[in-house]
Amino acid sequence: MKYSIVFAALVSLGSASPIEPRQQTYGSGPYGAVASSSDSGFADHTIYIPNKAPLTAGDKFPVLVWGNGGCGSDGNSNNKFLGHVASNGYLVIASGRPGGSGGSTTAAMMKASIDYAVKVAGTSGKYANVDATKIAAAGFSCGGVEAMAMAWDARVKTLGIFSSGLLTNYTAASTFTKPIWYFQGGSGDVAYANGERDFKALPKDTISWKGNLPLGHGGDLFNTNGGKFGKAGLLWLDFLFKGSEDGKKYFVDGGSKSDGWAVETKNLDKAKPL
């Protein structure tokens, strides 16, 4: 029933050897990353995955599921950011095929990404080191609305909203209880008013961070590694999923302001690794 707010709006890494060596390598993280849609029965999504096993014994790769701007069906549309995230030790699944065109993605496709991550995590081969107990749902613009539909999925631990806000059922944000991060493009961002409204409506106990960088809709997400939007997005994941001290300094200790973010927070002092 709760997914209807979106449907109404949207009508083994067992070795260190490359997984698909002929493909482009993404990101500047220590793992590098490759992308594909070759998994049998899951061809309508794009999978970004580290190109090496964990560098430290016992480490696991958390999961990011992603919705594209415009709910577009090209899973490579944000590849500079998503590939960079994967290259830093994450499994990333974007709705839509690489280079896909025609039609649009849905919240159901994002849910399918979560289902798939849970299914394959810990199996042999390239998914051997995936940890599906740590799943984040995020998206840009229309894709951010898809991510908000995951607010009630118990498998999702945190939400990342990039230049987005609810399109219908505006009171739904008042029920969001998961840690939620908003990355907005300032007053010139077409989603600015909706994002501001949603942030204000969050329950008083919800851990949240909202940053505005005056770069407009989507900011510099399409720049190398996702630009400052991508830097903040990766640190959000590292902070909550890996206990990163750099992430803590950026968000809790105010380091993001040095990058130009105008920040508001709620209960951030209560944030801790998930």
UniProtKB/TrEMBL annotation:
<feature type="signal peptide">
    <location>
        <begin position="1"/>
        <end position="16"/>
    </location>
</feature>
<protein>
    <submittedName>
        <fullName>Alpha/beta-hydrolase</fullName>
    </submittedName>
</protein>
<keyword id="KW-0732">Signal</keyword>
<dbReference type="InterPro" id="IPR029058">
    <property type="entry name" value="AB_hydrolase_fold"/>
</dbReference>
